[in-house]
Amino acid sequence: MLLLDKRESLAKKIAIISVWANIILTLGKIFVGWYGNSDAVFADGIHSAADVFASIIVLLVIKLANKPADEDHPYGHGKAEVIVSGVVGIILVFVSIYIVYEGIVGFFHPIETPSLLAMWVAIISYVSKTVLYRTSLKVAKEYKSKAMEAIAFDHKADIVASIAAAAGVLLSFIGDKSNIIFLMYGDKVASIFVAYLIFKIAKEMLTEAFHILIERSLDADTLQSIINVINEFEEVRRIDRIRGREHGHYILVDVRISIDHFKTIKEGHDLAREIKGALMKKFDNVEEVLIHLNPYFPEN
pTM for this structure? Predict the structure, then answer.
């Protein structure tokens, strides 16, 4: 319970910081992007607005995801985080489509050189988002939080987007001063590139959420590590079948093992309990282990 409380507290703290940081960046980038004639920075501001919404969703769902299993949800509530991750991914897809639309439309209007102020705002966004990304990702990995991981990747999208926006403004400014026409479109091209990067990260988030929701098996390395722990018990004659799946921030494992046919029910029960304890001690994200015992008869 202490681990869950700490996990929830840290996740909430990071999410609250993300909300306020994104609100400030949203207002700054949208205003400066509009005032400074920068489509790329304005588009980045729209992305930050989506981040605000995503962070608020995470705040609302963290407590639910950490609730223990109950009668209606015997496997726990961990997938609530996965759903949030998917929702954030869908939001980013729509944001990327909107930015592409605005960028393409911009090619058919008179070119207005963006202000260098927009570039500095993008640089400030890059620095702040880098700090938020590293902090969020560290917490996400430490506590196996899909919701926090979604926020971290959202920050990552902002990092690259801010670099692209700053580069686009600078190229447009150089093109205007040097009278190089194609460079003057740098801001428009940057806004479309920003949209591509956002879409790419959204696709990764949606793919991961989809696989977890349809209960894709654990990766081969993790399964092999679990098998190695089980094989340390001499009483286990054979592993007949093993399955594992992610359920948000924790893992559920099903395994069928064969033990000598003459073992008593109590001996089998004690062995299963020892194996479960060993797995949960070795892997702090293993929440439940279901062990089925089969009788083992030596071959002639």
Answer: 0.60
